[in-house]
Amino acid sequence: MLAIKAQPRAKTPGIDGVVEGPNGRYFLKIKLRAKAEDGAANAELLAVLAKALGRPKAALTLETGASARLKTIRIAGHADAVAARLTQLAAS
């Protein structure tokens, strides 16, 4: 499970590091070009994250936050490999 903070309608899309959210929880911030309408931002979010993690889109599922900026994504796959890639992404 991965906590995400989505920023729709961003000028420059991509992963924007780690940010602190409510209750001291940390989120991977992802900027998206799409508007938060008709699921467009959620679809772009899953595509961007899948590409960044080197996983197929089918391996990612939006668990919570379909209509919110704070979301939880379930990532199928080898946990150690996904964790290592997330560490690289957060550091860049």
Summed up:
With 92 residues, the protein is of the alpha+beta class.
Characterise this structure:
- The chain contains 2 helices and 5 strands; from the N terminus they run E-E-E-H-E-E-H.
- It is of the alpha+beta class and 92 residues long.
- The protein has a 5-stranded mixed β-sheet, with helices on one face.
- The chain is globular, with a radius of gyration of 12 Å.
- The model has no long low-confidence stretch (mean pLDDT 91).
Question: Proportion of β residues?
Answer: 25-35%
| Continuous helix count | 2
Q: Catalogue the unreliable spans.
A: none
Q: Please report the distance between the alpha carbons of the first and last residues.
A: 20 Å
The percent range for helix content is 25-40%
Spatially, the strands of the biggest sheet line up as 2-3-1-5-4
Structural class: alpha+beta
Number of E-state strands: 5
Shape: globular
Rg, Å, rounded: 12 Å
Give the biggest beta sheet: 5 strands, mixed
Mean pLDDT: 91
Q: Can you write the helix and strand succession as a string?
A: EEEHEEH
Keywords:
92 residues, alpha+beta, 5-stranded mixed beta sheet, globular
Secondary structure topology:
Blueprint: E1 2-7, E2 14-20, E3 26-31, H1 40-53, E4 60-64, E5 70-75, H2 79-91
